[in-house]
From TrEMBL:
InterPro entries: Metallo-B-lactamas, NDM-1-like, RibonucZ/Hydroxyglut_hydro. SMART domains: Lactamase_B (SM00849). It comes from the Bacteria. One of its GO terms (biological process) is antibiotic catabolic process. PANTHER family: ACYL-COENZYME A THIOESTERASE MBLAC2, METALLO-BETA-LACTAMASE DOMAIN-CONTAINING. This is MBL fold metallo-hydrolase. Residues 56-242 form the Metallo-beta-lactamase domain. Belongs to the metallo-beta-lactamase superfamily. Class-B beta-lactamase family. The keyword Coiled coil does not apply. Keywords: Hydrolase.
């Protein structure tokens, strides 16, 4: 587990709100995000990462010819600071905001930017998810309830498979990968710059959240990473959902990590071993942080069983 996430967890537990985390986890966390430290990191001319501390997602900033295109928006509370950081590199306003997925630490800021009539663009399923109270699964904090968003926090434009934005020499491709981290994920590709914002399909803190209750699936997550590796080169830069700017090397290591765990669980399941036996047998480098190892293997096991069942059905047809 990322030690900052651990600290946040300890703070939350100290405030005894953890017991009712299902209902007010996000509100409690929202009280603490004011202390977030933000750094604006230049990737190349006109492209930046706003890298935060704590349970706050990464923002990609592109200072285009007609305005700023932002990918993800962190928390509404942090919007003034985000705008201040952007104003140090351009005097143009934020024109559009792309959402990578519906989780609060990436899109709570929609509420602030939406109020200023920034165009918010996202996958159709993401907008659907924001319309109602949702339970987020797979996190280190158990089930988390994310309440329905007010109208101003909703995407104003949605897409299904892909969408393209143009600005001068830059072409920005939004690509939907079904059922990876959630069922409404978009990867954002700045083609000319050779930069991707991957959302939480790729994180650097270790074992990732896979939001199974909202369509997340480890098989598709691995496939998406394989796709990214197949279209990348040594100059490609990846902005993960959380963590520093990465290259192919880190993304390959991440693929290995997920593939190795998934393959070990598949092998165990095929032998008919119990989850307990599989959890005992799976080797995960103990230096890997993120979601608790046993909890993660439990998630993977459930997803593997689901896939095996589907495969068997296909075979018996
Ligand atoms: Zn997420």
């Amino acid at each position: 587990m990322n030690y900052l996430i651990l600290i946040a967890l300890v703070i939350l537990m100290a405030h005894s709100s953890y017991g009712q985390h299902e209902n007010n986890f996000i509100d409690s966390l929202g009280q603490t995000v004011g202390g977030t430290k933000e750094e604006l990191i230049k990737i190349k001319e006109n492209y930046y990462l706003i890298q935060p501390t704590g349970i706050v997602g990464n923002i990609a900033v592109y200072t285009g010819s007609t305005g700023v295109v932002m990918v993800d928006a962190q928390w509404a509370k942090l919007a003034p600071r985000i705008k201040e950081l952007i104003s140090t590199v351009t005097d143009k306003p934020v024109r559009s905001l792309v959402n990578t997925h519906f989780h609060f630490d990436h899109v709570d800021g929609n509420k602030a930017f939406g109020r200023e009539n920034v165009t918010i663009i996202a996958h159709t399923n993401l907008r659907e998810r924001l319309l109602k109270d949702r339970v987020i699964s797979g996190s280190a904090f158990g089930a988390i309830i994310q309440k329905a968003y007010p109208t101003e926090g909703l995407p104003t434009i949605t897409f299904n498979d892909t969408m393209t934005l143009y600005d001068g020499n830059e072409t920005i491709r939004l690509i939907h990968f079904p059922n990876a981290h959630t069922d409404g994920d978009a990867i954002v590709h700045f083609k000319t710059a050779n930069i991707y914002h991957t959302g939480d399909i790729f994180v650097t803190y270790g074992l990732p959240v896979i939001d199974e209750a909202n369509g997340g699936d480890i098989y598709a997550m691995i496939q998406t990473i394989e796709y990214l590796l197949s279209v990348s080169n040594s100059d490609t830069r990846f902005i993960p959902g959380h963590g520093p700017v990465c290259s192919v090397k880190e993304l390959s290591e991440y693929r290995m990590l997920l593939t190795s765990i998934k393959d070990q669980v598949v092998a165990g399941a095929k032998k008919g071993l119990s989850l307990e036996k599989i959890t005992e047998a799976v080797t995960v480098n103990k230096n890997v942080g993120g979601i608790d190892r046993n909890m993660f293997i439990g998630h993977v096991y459930r997803m593997v069983l689901k896939h095996e069942k589907m495969n068997n059905k296909k075979k018996s047809r």
